[in-house]
Amino acid sequence: MAVKIHFDGRTVAVDNGSGRSILELARTAGWHIEAQCGGRGSCASCNVMLGPGRYRVFDEEIEVQPEQRLEVLSCQAQVLGDEAEVFLPRASVISFEGARIADEMEIPEHAFDPRSKRGFGLAVDVGTTTVVAALVDLGTGEVVARESLYNQQILKADDVVSRISLCNTEGQLEQLQELVVGHTLNPLIHKLCAGTGASGCDIVHVVLSGNTVMMHIFFGVSPAPIGVIPFKPASRTFEATAGELRIDIRPDAPVEAVPAISGYVGGDITSDLHVSKPWNMDGLVALIDIGTNGEMVACHGGRMHACATAAGPAFEGAGLLHGTRAASRAIDSVQYDENLDFELGVIGDPTPMGLCGSAIIDFIAEGFRCGLINAYGRYDLDMLKRNGRYERVCGMHACMLVAPELSATGESITVTEGDIAEVLKAKAAIYGGLKSLLAELGKGVRELDHVVLAGGFAKHINLENAICIGLLPDIRIEKYKVIGNGSLAGAALALLDRSTGPAYLELIDRLQIVTLNKTAHFINHFQEALAIPNLETDDFPSVAGR
Amino acid sequence: MARNEALFEAVLKGKRKDVAALVQTAIDEGTNLESILMDSMVPAMAEIGDRFSRNEAYVPEMLIAARAMQAGLDLLDPLLQAAGHKAIGKVAIGTVKGDLHDIGKNLVAMMLKGAGFEVLDLGVDCDVEKYRDAVEKGAQAILLSALLTTTMPYMKTVVEGLKGSSAKILIGGAPVTQAYADEIGADGYSDDANTAVKATKVALGIAA
Q1: Which CATH number is B90-204's, of 3.40.50.280, 3.60.15.10, 2.40.10.220, 3.40.190.10?
Q2: Do residues A86 and A126 both lie within one domain?
Q3: Does residue B50 sit at the A interface (CB-CB below 8 Å)?
């Protein structure tokens, strides 16, 4: 007498606790279901198939007969009674297997002057999606191990804004804090110690770097003020002891956050800036972190302006019909010409289940080059049909990349015109934001002398393709510098050189925050950037117009 | 008057400069102003709205068309007003307090203008007072937009604050649902810019 949950050839029986959603039952069974909207029932990332049993779905009672299957949102479904069978589709279950994590970092030259030369320090990049931790030997200054894990808060909500709104509900802040400390960082620490023979007690200093909302939650402070105008954080700096935060290391070890610049431009950007030092580069420099919130800094003649732009999750593969995170079975690169013979790169296991962000950029760029996709993101339907690639999915025109028999889901993997539209909106937010930010300095995009790309995503994209779709400025590739995980490097630097902390505090006040929606031109620049590569074709001389 | 095919196509394809030039030519030629708007431009926006509803056009294309439409309206509006043109209705739209997002709101505003409404754009970060002022200025419907789950609850405050006024209240935005509209007692809801126009017409009893 139990609820049987099936996934990937395995079955786990769990007891049906009263009032628990199927999403929660699946978690008890050990499978984490994607809940992009935070379990509010407004997205479809947590879909499951119900087998025989009685259920309550939204507010309706439903009975599923033997041999029947019913697809529902698991966050809005409960089992009535004790017996039921639930099948989890692969696309709904979060897998960390093969996850492509940006743990590569370059620590620039620095003085070696830690607070203590005994024991270990822990540098942590606390991302909205991923947490990366590096163990640093404070005696030698060496990074001895790195580990990463999804930030377990993704079980509750995907993006920063959903997490802020969760915190408005009693008890949720504490739960989110427990998810990132107890269920993410502590397991990482155990792995780091097990791998190196260090003991948690040897860790004497922790520096965290991450966006402002993640830092609030980590330290148990409500990020609610960041959710509404004027988006002011409760604090830009945080410190506590490991004991207070229940981190499994020496209880008296200090834990501090790299200070934030503003509510939406966080300590991760402070780190990126300190690591890449754009003020030491000649001319006009932009630093861009492409993510759900694209953060950007423009630097010219000693002045620095920063902004954040809401790009949405398309580049993380979310919000696309067959999108997926950059983990095992994700298509991560695509090449083709007008014959539509797709050459796919797949991470890990060669049987793909969906496309991640870098692949969708390739797909659109190649499609634009060969004429499959026009400037508005619409398909040449004849070309699709001629090559046997046409499908109609959810009422939309779609291009089939992988046939059902070759995909891990048993369904074809497609890109719909709706998916392309999502990417165009995301890239328009980034490019339009950058153009508006530079306009505040009286500069144009093509005047950029250097572009620093920070964050994990930039490490894996094809820059020519990113320029082709109009995501990044059309300047020579040599002017781009990809720095990898600057956030982690910034946290490590603060461990290794005690002068870093004061430098951060000075740095965060040097930036002027630009609120894009309040600038005169953002809407215009955003709208222009909705086309491929841009309605202002003068911005993209190297991309052949069609 | 017959439809100006070139102008219709230019709006549909989002060719802003062409729209401005074609409207200017039509004005210079003495074409009936209302005809330029109602016979060529409004049908073009209606067409893109219908395509959107059929999944034959997406938000980027709509925004690009809306931008072109606006270029034409910038030329026509002052002349139409001077000529005493009557819109099919007067509505106000604004993003609620605490929220700065305006791309969705602007698109809805453009679609409403594109359907022949007079639109008071209240901008972003609007408190109850701002909406109430709009009602006093004659807005028959008030459209509220919120893009954040953190700012959506303010919609309820507005509905309560405008209780007793004659204006209909419609709500929309990414986190907003029909269930939420029912819960707070809004008169209408829409999940996209095209149905927002239809919902506004329904709420005001205007034939679609």
Answers
A1: 3.40.50.280
A2: no
A3: no
A312, A282 contact by CB (below 8 A): no
A101 confidence band (pLDDT: 50, 70, 90): low
Q: Name the average pLDDT for chain A.
A: 92
Domain boundaries, chain B: 5-82, 90-204
End position of a domain, from candidates A211, A242, A267: A267
In terms of CA atoms, which chain A residue is nearest residue B147?
A161
Which of B50, B67, B103, B156 to mutate: most A Cβ within 10 Å? B103
Residues of B in contact with A229 (CB under 8 A): 97-100, 125
Q: Which of A40, A395, A517 has the CB atom closest to B102's CB atom?
A: A517
Q: Is residue A21 part of a domain?
A: yes
Q: What is the mean pLDDT of residues A432-458?
A: 95
Average pLDDT in the B20-40 region?
A: 95
What confidence tier does A162 reach under pLDDT thresholds 50, 70, 90?
Answer: confident
What's the 3-state SS for A226-238?
HHCCCCCCCCCCC
Report if residue A487 sits inside a domain: no
Cα(A5)–Cα(B88) distance, rounded to whole angstroms?
56
Domain that holds residue A26: 3-92
Domain membership of residue A462 (yes or no) is no
Instruction: Write the DSSP assignment of chain B as a string of letters.
Output: ----HHHHHHHHHT-HHHHHHHHHHHHHTT--HHHIIIIIIHHHHHHHHHHHHTTSS-HHHHHHHHHHHHHHHHHHHHHHHHTTPPPS-EEEEEEETT----HHHHHHHHHHHHTT-EEEEEEEEE-HHHHHHHHHTT-SEEEEE--STTTTTHHHHHHHHTTTSS-EEEEESTT--HHHHHHHT-SEE-SSHHHHHHHHHHHHT---
- Residue A127 near residue A213 (C-beta atoms within 8 A): no
Short-list A402, A389, A426, CA closest to A330: A402
Domain final position from A49, A73, A92 = A92
Considering only CB atoms, which chain B residues are within 8 Å of A227?
98, 148, 150-151
Name A397's bridge partners: A392
Quick one: DSSP state of residue A475?
Answer: S
**B135's tokens:** 């009602």
Q: State how many domains chain A has.
A: 2
CA dihedral (A16, A22, A24, A26) positive or negative: positive
Written as six digits, the tokens of A301 are 């003649």
Cα A333 to Cα A328: distance, rounded to the nearest angstrom: 13
Same domain, A261 and A129: yes
Q: Are residues A213 and A76 in the same domain?
A: no
ipTM of model: 0.86
Q: Quick one: A39 and A140 in the same domain? A: no
Q: Is B61–A228 a contact, with Cβ atoms under 8 angstroms apart?
A: no
Residues A160 and A257 in one domain: yes
Q: Are strands A254-257 and A285-289 parallel, antiparallel or unpaired?
A: unpaired
- Region A11-19: mean pLDDT is 81
| Whether A59 and A142 share a structural domain | no
* Longest Cα separation, chain A: 71
**Binary contact (A224, B150; C-beta < 8 A):** yes
Dist CA A433 CA A437 (whole Å): 6
How many degrees, rounded to 5, is the angle at CA A257 between CA A253 and CA A259? 145
Domain membership flag for residue A48 = yes
Nearest to A535 among B64, B102, B149 (CB): B64
> Residue A43 pLDDT > 80, yes or no?
no
CATH topology of domain B5-82: 1.10.1240
A206, A69: one domain: no
Residue found by looking up tokens 């649902």 in the block? B177
**Residue A222 contacts B, CB cutoff 8 Å:** no
Residue of A nearest to B102 (CA): A517
The predicted-structure confidence for B68-113, as pLDDT tens digits, reads as follows: 999 999 999 999 989 888 889 999 999 999 998 888 899 999 899 9
Terminal-residue alpha carbon distance, chain B: 21
